[in-house]
């Protein structure tokens, strides 16, 4: 299963949060409000491919109820970083460690308070490529994921949708649409090569890449879910110059690795695009429930 650097995840977090589709997010919050109104226990959310906990930081403050979160990731270092970042983000923290003792388990459960609501967080290291059922069988009110489903194979999506019995909210799935300004004659060839690279194995088999969300939507409808989608593009401008630079470099590197464009052309494109004043990268959000 692929992993990502904490630097990259931190760089994109602010843009990820502002890019979520607001209408779709409100539907999710309304559903969770209904759940919270009929249960005495905290709302339980399982976040797949959780990284450093960005999805929790985006959604949890909007939920007017106590919460239990299970953050699931393959990379134990990302889970450690998630715990550290969440503790820094919270208004207050209680981890159950004896007073004055250093925490020897960097991914032990932690209880946070944010906006006067308690958030209990469990960190679960799992390889979702081979151990999906044990995660989906856990009781939950909502399964979430961010920038995750474009990394997995169509066969894995089929398995996931057959096993899913819980409402799903996934955000920022890459849809393949990109616009960079000003126009460059190599844009289309670079994008074609990048899409080819997106289909490479990220630990789940050949990735669905830009076709992931439409495939996921079709499979969920087949399983009887009611599905709503909404666009959530990254719209990047001068204030996002560092992210634009990293995005241009990563795209150029991926395109060159396919050999569909030469190293020289990819490098030239990447260097030019690092100075772009604006670009838009297409993503979509999805909410599914019975």
UniProtKB/TrEMBL annotation:
One GO biological process term: methylation
SUPFAM superfamilies recorded: S-adenosyl-L-methionine-dependent methyltransferases
An example molecular function term from Gene Ontology annotations: methyltransferase activity
UniProt keyword list: Methyltransferase, Transferase
InterPro entries: SAM-dependent_MTases_sf
Name this protein carries in UniProt: SAM-dependent methyltransferase
Organism of origin: Polynucleobacter arcticus
């Amino acid at each position: 299963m692929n992993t990502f650097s904490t630097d990259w995840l931190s760089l994109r977090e602010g843009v990820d949060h502002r890019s979520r589709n607001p209408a779709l997010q409100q539907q999710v919050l309304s559903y969770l409000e209904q759940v919270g109104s009929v249960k005495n226990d905290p709302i339980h959310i399982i976040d797949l491919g959780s990284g450093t906990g960005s999805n929790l930081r985006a959604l949890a403050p909007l939920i007017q109820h106590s919460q239990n979160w299970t953050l699931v990731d393959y990379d134990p270092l990302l889970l450690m970083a998630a715990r550290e970042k969440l503790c820094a983000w919270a208004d207050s923290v209680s981890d159950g460690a004896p007073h004055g003792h250093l925490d020897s388990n960097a991914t032990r459960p932690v209880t946070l308070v944010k906006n006067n609501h308690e958030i209990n967080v469990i960190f679960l290291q799992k390889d979702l490529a081979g151990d999906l059922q044990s995660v989906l069988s856990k009781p939950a009110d909502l399964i979430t994921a961010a920038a995750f489903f474009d990394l997995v194979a169509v066969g894995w999506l089929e398995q996931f949708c057959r096993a899913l019995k819980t409402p799903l909210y996934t955000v920022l799935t890459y849809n393949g649409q990109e616009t960079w300004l000003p126009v460059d004659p190599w844009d289309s060839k670079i994008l074609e090569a990048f899409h080819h690279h997106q289909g490479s194995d990220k630990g789940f088999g050949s990735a669905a890449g830009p076709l992931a969300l439409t495939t996921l939507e079709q499979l969920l409808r087949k399983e009887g879910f009611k599905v709503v989608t909404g666009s959530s593009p990254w719209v990047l401008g001068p204030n996002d110059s560092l992210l634009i630079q990293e995005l241009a470099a990563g795209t150029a590197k991926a395109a060159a690795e396919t050999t569909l464009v030469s190293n020289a052309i990819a490098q030239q494109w990447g260097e030019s695009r690092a100075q772009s004043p604006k670009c838009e990268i297409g993503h979509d959000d999805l909410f599914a429930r019975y």
